[in-house]
Each structure stands twice: as structure tokens, then as C-alpha cells.
Amino acid sequence: MPTTEAQLSAQLYQESRERTAGLLTTLDDAAWAAAVPTCPGWTVRDVVAHVAAVAEEWVDGRLAGVPTDAQTAAQVARFSDAGTADLLAAWADAASLLEDAAHARGLVAPVADVVSHEHDIRTALGRPGARDSAAVRYSSEQVLDILQTPVPLRVTVEDAEYRCGPDGGDELRLRTSRFESLRWRTGRRSRAQLAAMDWSADPEPVLDALYLFGPAATDIVE
């Protein structure tokens, strides 16, 4: 079992990467070129190029947070001439370096990025699954822990509750799931979908505080 946060993150990263690679290895060219609804303008191949580049840049210190639009464009372009097998190999190599860095210097792997894109790819391919994975739980906890709202809010998921907002006043409540919370926190749901969730009262005061980026321009059905 992993003994540190970094080692746990590396393990969860590898598990998500391996699940995703398992979906990708048998794809034909048309599937690699499929549009990804949760990443407008990107294909499945573009998403894989992005996660491979994030892993490379995370290890060598070029990236330590959410990349800019210019950085993501450069990441996709980096692998534009690579075959799909070479692209998957480059991602596997970078993930191995992430694991080494977790043990050697305590580098925490970008689990939320990889598992979010795992499910982006699953959505594009019509291959849902692994919504209760340890990586989903780990990442949902991260994004819910940092949720800040202008009014008191209590978010209830399968196995925990998260309280945010100021003390005092009427508390708004939301019942959701870890998978859904990861998706709406990372911009994979539209504002209309956010408003339609299981709220105790009118959610208008908190809707624009729910997402780290986004929301999606159109409804996303997964």
C-alpha cells in the first residue's frame, strides 16, 4: 500500500491511465478522431496528447497547475506527428516518471486531470464506467474541499458531507455524488444542469461559485 500522499496519487494516476489506455488500444482512426463533447474543439487524440504532455511537464516542473489555453494548444501540437502507439507509449513513459518522482521527491501526481479526461474520453466513445474509482473519490474530495460559496452550503455525497460558505444564515443543501461533483466542479455540466440538481431551495445564489472553470456551453449527458 502507498505510504505517502505522493505515492497514493501516483498509484491512482496509473490506475486511471491504464483504464484509459485499455479503451484506446483497439480504437480505429475514426474513434481516435471522435469529437469530445466535454472538451469543445478537441478529439480523443487531442485529449490523449494533452494528458501525456501534462505528465511530462509535471515531472520536469514546467507545469504545476491548470495550464493556460496557449499551453494546452502547445501540448496538443507537440504530438501532432506521433502515431497513436507512440503517443500511448510517451504517456506511459511519463506516468512511470511520475511514479518515480513520487517515491524520490514526493511529487504529487495530477490525478484530477487524468481522471477527468478519462471520463471525457469515455463520454466521447460511449463507454461509461469506473465512476466509483478511487481516483474519482480522491479528486472529488480535492475539488469539494476547496469549494467556496457566498452563502452557506452543505454538499452531501455518498460517504461524506462538505460545508462551505459563511457561518450563520439559512443553509442551502445539495445532494449529489462524487462522480457528479467532480464533473460539475471541472466544468462538465451546463448552468442549466447545475440549476436542475437536487437542491433544497433556489440555488441561484451559488450557481456561479460551483465550477472551477466552465460551465459547459451546452448540456452534457454522460
UniProtKB/TrEMBL annotation:
Organism: Mycolicibacterium litorale
Domain of life: Bacteria
Protein name: Mycothiol-dependent maleylpyruvate isomerase metal-binding domain-containing protein
One protein family per Pfam: MDMPI_N
GO molecular function, a single term: metal ion binding
Gene3D superfamilies: dinb family like domain
InterPro entries listed in its UniProt record: DinB/YfiT-like, Maleyloyr_isom, MDMPI_metal-binding
Domain Mycothiol-dependent maleylpyruvate isomerase metal-binding stretches: 15-114
